[in-house]
Amino acid sequence: MSRTTNRTDQRGTPSRPQQAAPATSSVPVPAVAQAGPVSHAIFRVARLHRMIAGQLLRPLGLHLGQELVMMHLWELGPQRQTDLVRLVDSDAATMTRSIKRLENAGFVRRRPCPDDKRAVIIEPTAASQALRREVERIWAELEGASTGDLTPAQQAETLHALQRLEDNLARTAARSPEDTPEDAPTPAADADTTTG
Length: 196
Description:
Number of strands: 5
Strand content: 5-15%
Oligomer: single chain
Radius of gyration: 22 Å
Order of helices and strands: EEHHEHHEEHHH
Number of helices: 7
Structural class: mainly alpha
Distance between the termini: 36 Å
Strand order of the largest sheet: 3-5-4
């Protein structure tokens, strides 16, 4: 998508439109990444999105990913911790740290599950309701920063393309280990799963 700027000369006569300089990537694309331009773009966009989200959440005392835990609790009510792991696609250790931090901040409380002595129920506190309005505001701000001047139609196209990418990656991730070549790196070995 290119923009043009119209200029006038000294007499006020319009000159030929000039192409505005295209936005440049904040990360140089290594030559080896030329084989995967979409993958490199996903990396760059995800990095910037996480950075901005973290900056917006920090004043609330939230670590990245904790707002997603809270969103599910506000929408669904009390949940077993194991269900929260599944809902936010996390792991048990990361979820335990996140819940501990949210509990220390006064946003959630833990209680034993009456049906399963091994399970813990996590519920949002009344104090978290003020946080909810701030999280909603921050997500609207993050959405605005992400979509910029995209039209509603372009936003819908972007969502559709992202859903297709997610579906493709989910299918790849769901393959059994037998389907993966022995010398291929495993996603878990390269992933940074630390949040909140």
